[in-house]
Structures are given as C-alpha cells and as structure tokens.
Specification:
heterodimer; A: alpha/beta; Rossmann fold; 6-stranded mixed β-sheet; 9 helices; 12 strands; disordered C terminus; B: mainly alpha
C-alpha cells in the first residue's frame, strides 16, 4: 500500500445556516488523478477550495505528506503563514484569473521569482519551458487579453506548473470555455495525468473524468455518496443518487453535438 | 510707470513656483494617505475603523477646502500650533486630497475581481506580495484618469492658499492689481499661467491612461 500524498479527514464547512460540507474524507495517492463530480451546490468546489485554505473548513484535517497543514496548534494560519504551504498545492480556476497587467511570461514567472526566490533569468527560462508544455511557447510576450479562453486557461496551467507543486487542484477548468475550446484544455490536463502528476479535478466533463481520472468521488448535498475507480463509478454506479445524476448528465451529453 | 505684460508674468511666475511646491507636497500626502485609508477601508475586519475612516472622508470632502485651511492656519494658531502659510496649504490640501483619493482607490480595489487576489495567494505569494505585484498595479491603472482629474483640480485649488497669504499666483496677482490697477492684464496673465500648468498635466495623465490601456 502506497503512502497517501494527501489525506482529507472529516472536512466540514458551513455558511450561516447552510452546511455545505458535512464531513468529507478521502485519500489521494502520489501520481493519482482524482475527479470530484456531482450536481451544482454539492460542495465539490468548496471542498477543493478548502484544500488550499481559500475557504477555511470549520472542522476536519488536511494532511499533506504526513503533515497537517493550514493550522498552528488550535488556530488557522494567516494568509501570510500559509504562503509556503500553498506553493505546494497549485490551483487552476474556472475563470483563469490571469493577471491582466502582466505578459504571459510574467504571469508564469511571478510566483517563482517572488515566492520561489528564483532569479529573473531562471524564472523566465522555467516560464518558457512550462509554456512549451501547454503548447503556448510562442505567446510568451502577449498580454492575456489577447488570448482565447482556452489559451488563457492553458497559461493558467503553465503558471500552476511553474510553482513546482506536489498537487494541482483544478476547479471546473473548462466550464467557462466555449465548447470548441474545451478540447485543447482537456488535452493538456490529460498529458499531465499521463505524466503521473497528482491532481484533483472538479469537473462536469463526466466522460473526461471517466477516461482520465484514476478515481472518482461523487458528491451530493455535502456528502461523499460514492467513490471508487473512475470507470466503475461512472459506468456501474452502485448508489441510486449517483445513477440518477449520471442519467441526467448522460441525457444532456447525448443531446450535445459530438466534439 | 506701469509694468509691461512680461514684467507681470515674471512676477506671477514666482507665484507659480510656490503653487508647484504646494501642489507637489499636497499630492504626496494625498497619494500616501489615500492609499493607506483605502487599504484600511477594503481590508480591515474592524467595522469601527471603517466607520471612523468613512466619517473622515465625508467630513473632508463636504467642507470647503478654504475652511480647512483657515482652521489649520488661524484656528490652530489660536491654540498655539503655528504653521507657515505654505505648510498649512500643503497639509490642508493634502488631507482633503487623501480623502478624495481614499474613495477613488477603494473603489478601484473593489473593482478588481476577488479571484485576482486568490490566484496570487494560491500561487504562494504573501498578502503583501499579492498587493504589491497584482492588486496595486491594476488598481493604479484603473484609477489613473481619476488621479489625473484630482491632480488638475489640486493645481487650481492652490489658488485658495492666497487666502492665508501663501505667496502663490493669485496672491501676487492681487498685490499687483492693488499697486498698478492693470486688472485685466494681470488676471489675464494669471489665467494663462494656470492653463499653461494644468493643460500639460492633464494631457500627460490622459496620455498615460491611453498607453496603459493599449498595453493590456
């Protein structure tokens, strides 16, 4: 049994009266791609955002390589104290959040320079290598605004890779994209999965989750309803709730034009 | 012997130098003060602090700047705190400007999507680094036209410093008028001088705003 890279234990989060996470627990092995699926409002994005403490969970622990993160004794770390731990866990957002005042190269190089202590020359070399990886080496001098949504998201992935993270979180990375741009982003994510990166992917692209993720967690109403090998959960769901959700998605998917 | 137009301009130019000193001093206070207040408004968790700053901003913006200068120069002198006319003008206009720019900067910061900061924190930057490298550059770009408006307004407002005998353009103009009675020529010269200072400043801001827009 391989040691877990990440262990999440009893994660709970409430906003006022609404309990969004009702005790989420799971493991991620090194090199594994885990996909969180489920209906809107099931808590999967909140769960993901708790993993790097953009949301502070009310209860539960998050353990990265055997070390509990995000807390100092009984209190949460401040954003300042969290910075080194967040470097280990990169995040790719639904709306990219590239920094519009910086060139693509500087977007990728900023954190390596300011947080990683790299020289500008080293960081630019790294940035260009990461941009090559997402097939955008030729766009280094552009500003984000001049790129398509798919290209912007690939830059965001390059920016995440430049952190040299142990784990990459993807928060619905293709949900804001025009349909014809989804493929290029999924293609890059698939390449990263094939490289054996450790990743957690919140997505509505069920077929992609089935084909690329090693494991899938189906969440609903703040609970983990079902989890297991991706193909088994998606093709042979055991729980009624999972079956109902996949049925809805399946019908919606069948109505879409083929990609 | 009446002075010619060039002599008048030469005298007024001495006033322009004072006006420039007042404007530069005030703008430094306004930028620094405005930024600090805006950061406090946007990022503090203390409602009390936000209330106090809000009250300060409203107070400074809703009382004429001339009244603030009188309070600083005459009012405080009555209780033993003495400023030079120049010092009172710099401080008074600077404090009013800080209130104006606090509002401008705070709306600029709020206009940025929360995701901009989250992406910076998620990349491992500290909150101070996120501010310095991600939020402030964008906020300044966004607010540059408003800063330009404020700067033009400030240069014109230096004229009220004449009321506390700071030797700026209008102060010299009035002195010249009382000694020579060449009213149209003198005030015409003063107007020309203001225009010659304000126009390049506002054009420079307009130019910078356009440049930065193309750059992104």
């Amino acid at each position: 049994m391989q040691e877990a890279l990440l262990t999440v234990n009893g994660l709970k989060k409430r906003y006022g009266a609404a309990e969004v996470l009702k005790g989420i627990s799971f493991d991620l092995k090194r090199g594994e791609t885990l996909s969180l699926i489920g209906p809107s409002g099931s808590g999967k994005s909140t769960c993901l955002r708790c993993l790097n403490f953009l949301e502070r969970p009310d209860e539960g622990e998050i353990v990265l390589e055997g070390e509990r993160i995000g807390r100092l004794g009984s209190r949460f770390m401040s954003d300042r104290e969290l910075a080194p731990q967040r470097r280990e866990i990169a995040m790719v957002f639904q709306l990219f959040y590239l920094w519009p005042h910086l060139t693509v190269r500087d977007n990728v190089a900023l954190a390596p320079i300011k947080a990683g202590g790299m020289s500008r020359a080293e960081a630019y070399e790294l940035a260009e290598a990461m941009l090559e990886k997402v097939h955008l080496g030729h766009k280094a001098d552009e500003y984000p605004e001049r790129l398509s949504g798919g290209q912007q998201q690939r830059v965001a992935i390059a920016r995440a890779l430049a952190q040299k993270p142990k784990l990459i979180l993807f928060d619905e990375p293709t949900s804001a994209l025009d349909p014809e741009l989804v493929g290029e982003v999924l293609g890059v994510i698939r390449e990263l999965a094939d490289e054996g990166r450790s990743m957690i992917l919140v997505t509505h692209e069920i077929r992609f989750a089935r084909d690329v993720a090693d494991r899938v967690i189906f969440m609903d109403g703040g609970h983990v309803v079902e989890q297991g090998r991706a193909r088994e959960v998606i093709c042979h769901p055991q729980k009624d709730r999972t079956r109902a959700f996949l049925g809805q998605i399946g019908e919606a998917g069948a109505a879409e034009p083929a990609r | 012997m009446n002075p010619g137009f060039l002599d008048i301009l030469r005298t007024l130019l001495a006033g322009a130098a004072t006006a420039a000193q007042v404007a530069v001093g005030a703008v430094v206070i306004a930028l620094a003060g405005g930024l600090l207040l805006a950061l406090a408004i946007v990022f503090t968790r203390s409602n009390a602090l936000r209330l106090v700053i809000g009250a300060y901003v409203e107070w400074m913006r809703n009382v004429p700047a001339l009244a603030h200068l009188f309070v600083l120069y005459f009012g405080l002198a009555a209780v033993g705190v003495r400023f030079s006319p120049l010092g009172a003008a710099v401080l008074g206009l600077g404090l009013v400007g800080a209130a104006v720019l606090a509002d401008v900067f705070a709306s600029g910061l709020r206009a940025l999507h929360a995701g901009q900061r989250e992406a910076a924190l998620a990349a491992g930057l500290t909150p101070a680094q996120a501010l310095r490298y991600v939020l402030l550059p964008q906020m300044l770009r966004l607010t540059l036209p408003s800063i330009g408006n404020y700067a033009s307004q400030l240069i014109k407002d230096t004229s009220i410093a004449s009321a506390i005998a700071a030797p700026e353009i209008m102060f010299y103009a009035r002195n010249l008028v009382t000694s020579t009675f060449q009213t149209p020529l003198i005030y015409g010269g003063a107007i020309l001088l203001y225009a010659c200072i304000v126009l390049p400043v506002s054009s420079a801001f307009a130019f910078m705003s356009r440049r930065l827009e193309v750059g992104r």
